[in-house]
Amino acid sequence: MAALIPGHPTPIAPNAWRVLGRNPGMMTGPGTNSYLVGDRALTVIDPGPVDHEHTQALLHAAEKIGRPIEQILVTHTHRDHSPGARELAEASGARLLGPDVPDDGLQDETWAPERRLRHGERVDCGGTKLEVIATPGHVGNHLCYLMVDQNLLFTGDHLIQGSTVVIAPPSGSMAAYMDSLALLRDYRIDLMAPGHGDVIDDPMATVDKTLAHRRDRERKVVEALDSDPITVQELVTRVYEDVPAFLHGVACLSLEAHLIKLRDEGRVSHTGGKWAV
Q1: Which residues contact 171 (CB under 8 A, 6 or more apart)?
Q2: How many CB atoms lie within 10 A of CB 176?
Q3: Architecture of domain 10-201
Q4: Model's pTM, two decimal places?
Q5: With respect to CATH, is domain 225-276 assigned 1.10.10.10?
Q6: Which of 93, 155, 161, 254 gets the highest tally of CB atoms within 10 A of its CB?
Q7: 116: which strand partners?
Q8: Which alpha helices (DSSP H) does the chain contain, by range?
Q9: CB atoms within 10 A of CB 25
């Protein structure tokens, strides 16, 4: 494991470095991880929120590595991952590549890629290839990037170290999330570089553990429901009794995502803002 030190380039693999952002918090853990990838030139993955000092840290990291920043990619457009792209692009002349912005009121509206990336394509990052893997779920536009020659997956918020991620409807989808987790089994992945936390050196075990956790939570949702309709706010205390009460507001988002999945499968009903089997 490599030390999580804000502002400093930390090598995590050949031709791959992490620079931790200065935005620790309940939803971001130690902060947002930005990554620099490339051989002859650098691509930045997830430049983070608007933060002049973090932008400068990325520019100084590139100088220290001795390669120019030519591209900026984002895994998704939540406000702790992509808003820093504008200042970094202006300072470096880098082009922006990545997904479009969902219209759900939770996104970085300043993100405007010059080219939209699609599942399966490979991006040349100064002699290093990144394969785009579409992983909707946490949010509908989420992408992961596989560094092909290292079998290193940049996971954004699809998987993070030491915790689970929030699935927030309407753009977030629990059904899509679980499908996207299962999709990773089709790839050889030796290491994961998440959007928050340290590197994950047991990637497939982490995938399986996360899928099992989501299935177990879904089982608890079904068991907690009965024929008497109940609101999400009432249900969360039953389904997330293992989670501190101050987190129940956030847990309601993932709980709703579970309920929508179950509704679409015909297993629960939703009427007047209340849910029942």
Answers
A1: 102, 104, 106, 107, 139, 140, 141
A2: 21
A3: 4-Layer Sandwich (3.60)
A4: 0.95
A5: yes
A6: 155
A7: 98
A8: 52-65, 85-92, 174-183, 203-224, 232-239, 248-264
A9: 11
